[in-house]
Amino acid sequence: MNKLHVIAxxxxxxxxxxxxxxxxxxxxxxxxxxxxxxxxxxxxxxxxVGNMLYISGTVGTGAxxxxxxxxxxxxxxxxxxNGLTYADVVKETVYTLDLDAFIRSQxxxxxxxxxxxxxxxxxxxxRLYDRSFVVEVELQAxxxx
Length: 145
Fold this sequence. Notes:
By secondary structure, the protein is α+β, with helices and mostly antiparallel strands. The chain has one domain: CATH 3.30.1330.40. It is built from 5 helices and 6 strands; from the N terminus they run αβαββαβααββ. It has helices spanning 3-19, 35-41, 64-81, 99-104, 106-113; strands spanning 28-31, 46-49, 52-61, 89-96, 119-124, 133-142. Strands 1-2-3-6-4-5 form a 6-stranded mixed β-sheet. The longest helix is centred in the middle third of the chain and has 18 residues, at 64-81. Residues 4-23 have low confidence and may be disordered.
């Protein structure tokens, strides 16, 4: 095969690759809690991608026990609205201004999980988005097959 034939074959192969159909992309579905506020900041409160639900940080204010209870109550409602429970949560990330106070409130958190706990990361931070927030919790949950 001469050089011209090799170039022609390579061009055909590359052209075939370029026109081959792309695999179907995973559908992303955004669930809004407050669509206007989310659009202003630039995020989706809960996002389903395939069999996973990613819940953006849900926050609590005031004394830590009250903040923990209200945050996990709202997360319960978000999970339920999407057909899930805390048993479906596989990853939890907590950001708090006072990790010691959050740890002292862990029994409140356990009320929501029962005996099925996710992988978890708890981090103390200097500040959250709004200065009144004392805790922020993100969840990742998996839809049953």
